[in-house]
Batch of 2 targets.
Target 1
Amino acid sequence: MCGIVGVLGDHEVAPLLVEALKRLEYRGYDSAGIATVNNGRLDRRRAVGKLVNLSDLLVHEPLAGKAGIGHTRWATHGAATVVNAHPHKAGPVAVVHNGIIENFRELREELAAAGYAQESQTDTETVALLVHQAMEGGATPATAARQTLKRLHGAFALCFLFDGEDDLLIAARKGSPLAIGHGDGEMFVGSDAIALASMTDRITYLEEGDWAVITRKGAEIFDEHDRRANRAETRIQIDATRIEKAGYKHFMAKEIAEQPVVLADGLRHYSRSGTLHLPAGVDFTGVDRIVLVACGTASYACHVAKYWFESLAGLPCDIDIASEFRYREPPLSPKQWAVFVSQSGETADTLAALRYAKEKVARVVSVVNVPTSSIARESDLTLPIMAGVEVGVASTKAFTSQLMVLALMALKAGVDRGRLDAAALAGHLAALHALPGLMNHALGQSGEIAKLAEELARAQDILFLGRGLMYPMALEGALKLKEISYIHAEGYASGELKHGPIALIDAQVPVIVLAPRDALFDKTVSNMQEVMARHGKVLLISDAAGVAEAGPGTWATLTMPAVDPIFAPILYAIPAQLLAYHTAIAKGTDVDQPRNLAKSVTVE
Ligand code: M6R
């Protein structure tokens, strides 16, 4: 999604703005731009495509000035063109924006009728024009911005820069996060702390509805009712924002490889000496139902967790994707919990679903990677997954860390509901603590997977099959593959195959079967035979016992270490991720920033 940066510096800001935008690249974007005020004059440069295009443009047409704003745009309204790229400028104001102004069409018509024509197709230019109109009516920049904010519906983070004002930024937040950074005689604005990490570690997060008048002396923050608001300044750990490939070719490769360590650290944090150390609020006594809500990969983590809550704790568990949950208006009870799972903690649909559930349930719980995120801050209780910054658009270590936290929660529910005694709990925890070692073994298959990927890269369609706990893993495997290799892939429950998808099977369609040797293995093997009988090309991913038992006829097999079947999804995530990664490499796609995708989806 779009990235915002603003700097009131004590030296030239263009290089700082580009550097900060680079740190936001991971969010996904398709054009970029900056604006500065130099000798009182506001000017801007914008370019389509990667940031290098903007840097090249700045070499030929430099922008001087010690005050500026910058933006990476992920197109929503209007194609990725220079005209639609931010900053948008109208009269004396330039603005960068993250989010969507839902009423921009009405506003644009009203502005056009008043003689303020728009040159781009964006909702953002409408904001600039409203401020311009107010300033032509005599308003100061701050008053014009404040009046404009009141007219906007939707979700947004905004940062304004003004002609003739080289010591002024105005920032506003409603629905999309925005942080203010404090320096020595310098001030900064960023859509997240990562953007600002090379400039400062002193951060103030704006709250919902806040807007701020920022000069080099500091920031005056106002709440949604325009009252002065005190927002705490926090120190962020720069280490936590470090985004380096550490010798890997891609962030995704690094993040896949980090999983054993990340998982081991997380497990140590939440469970030691054969017992659980979850926050005190994680007490399922009296809870009669739970609903898990998320988007994309996080929703597949919820899907796996449903099996855990039901089998380990006997706790009825509903799951839903946030974009459906929020509008379906499901009945919720005061005896249930609603759990929201999100890597970024800023996903617009998940946040809206959380707001729907608030006040209707006993407790709103979030499982997030970013503890300062909106979803974390609006929850009654947060369990951070502590995966570290995840840069690759394809979620990997966040997924397995979400699974880890959800597994521990399900175990706690089992204890609280009298389903698990101390010995059973210790047994399950031992199985979880064995996973990092097993994941290391699975990572050792990377070379073999790369060879299989050469062949998979030639396919047009790929199916993933799994049963029980492996069904959501089939969905996740397919999502991962399609996101970064652009090959059409679908995941199915193995038992559903003959109810339709089997019509797709022929010698051209690889079918990837995820099947550890568990209680459902024989049934999955029967489904696999049905595929092979129709010349389907099966890649079986199982353990040694499973591979031996499945017999001949497969195109290929991948042997995973034997694992406690309950927690097998955490291990089987690794081959699914590596298959996607190596297939994308074989196809030559942009692994870390695949086309059309954004890391943090802050619009509906
Ligand atoms: O930040 P979130 O976990 O809320 O993001 C949810 C999805 O957008 C995300 O998991 C997406 O599906 C990933 N690109 C999957 O790899």
Target 2
Amino acid sequence: MTTLHFVLFPVMSQGHMIPMVDIARLVAQRGANVTIITTPVNANRFKPVITRAIKNNLNIQLLELELPLSDVGLPEGYESFDLIPSAPLFNKLFAAAAMLKEPAENMIQELVPPASCIISDNLFPWTYDLARKFNIPRLIFHGPGCFTYLCIHISLHTNFVDEMVSDSEYYVLPGIPDRIELTKAQASSWGKKEEKEATEFMETLREAEEASNGIVVNSFEELEPFYVEGLAKAKSKKVWCIGPVSLCNKSLPDLAERGNKVAINEHECLKWLGSREKGSVVFVCLGSLSRASTEQNIELGLGLEASNIPFIWCLRHPTEEFEKWLIEKGYEEKVKDRGVIVRGWAPQVLILSHQAVGGFLTHCGWNSTLEGISSGIPMITWPHFADQSLNERFIVDVLKLGLKVGIEVPIIVGDQDKFGALVKNEDIKIAIEALMSKEEGGEARRSRARDLSKMAKSSMEEGGSSYVNMTWMIQNINELLDAKSTTMEDGIVKEL
Ligand code: UDP
């Protein structure tokens, strides 16, 4: 049997790149060759982790393609969604990425051993043409978990809702065992259905998804058994849950440095956490893309101060006005005995996996959600946009691991640089205190979180469900390739 060579195409955003790089290492650990194709700025962020993987004898390479940014009217350096200041420019980055098809084809042509399978982010429908060109299987990687993907699928196919309810009215999502109440805006905040461009893009995604040879999901079967099966049925596809992929990070550098250079020394961070009581700290991080207004950061700061709970607050893009407020208020001095502010990128997985952390205030990005679950930590949910409202429902209504901060109206994708509804400091304080409380409800949440964390870890161990799914996924690729070579010997070219 020839060595398999997987070619990975991650979307240029930390929430997509980070799990793909983890997937690359998991696939390479099974003896396959892996090539990740991305752009220079994104490659730079991941060079340290890939260099360590290569030192550990994994056959991984990062290949770079220049994005034709000027062709789409984007300035130099705008290579990742978190580096683009205004969300309306996001479509331009997608357009530039689609122009990588031809150079990627030339790159794949040169690969040794030859490419045997593409794993592409499902937001890159153009990689379907590459798979056809080389007649190799193409798996798609779905960012969110199966619950959320199934809910999106159901919402898109539930036309009666459009006629029956207004944007802000709640309705019950049909066809699933959990009672999930949603507004139309929450169910469709990943895109405005009525916009022609968005509809066309969704249609291209659907076609490329339909033509794929299977779906790879960063989740584990025990977490959402009904939804794994439901998604496979709804899409008529094999669904391989191979996560939580973040659990492949075991060494201190791998845990500390995921997706970007961190803004706090990991040893100092561990020292601080080591000085706190078990389960006493709340970690606050709202992901790589969401932005908070000065007003919102002030409310958050006041809420954290009033709660009297130790915290690490990952503060991204603070405005000058907010920095001024911090100084005038003497904020950092006031909270210095129990609070740390990280200005920039935080070593999230390292922090979450420390025993001192007992709560996570999250924006409900799927990676963050799963990282919280893997670490056995209950969550306060503060969704902003895209799939985050649905992930919130999963955390709160299905897993019963979280408390809502109270966001009813999400920001619609395309408007990410607008700020969402203001959450007041009293509500933040109440949510933090309730989450960290020693009362019955708090203990029950903690106990469920601990159980799920154990299941998550076992699923990734040899013989665990995600480990076995990875074996099946690789076996399936081998079977598809074998079937192709047998029919080619017969003089018939079988199209994959
Ligand atoms: N992350 C991190 N440090 C930060 C912010 C984010 O390590 O300061 C990581 C986080 O652990 C997760 C990813 O970035 O793996 C964010 O992905 P997610 O799906 O949670 O949200 P997004 O940023 O895509 O909205």
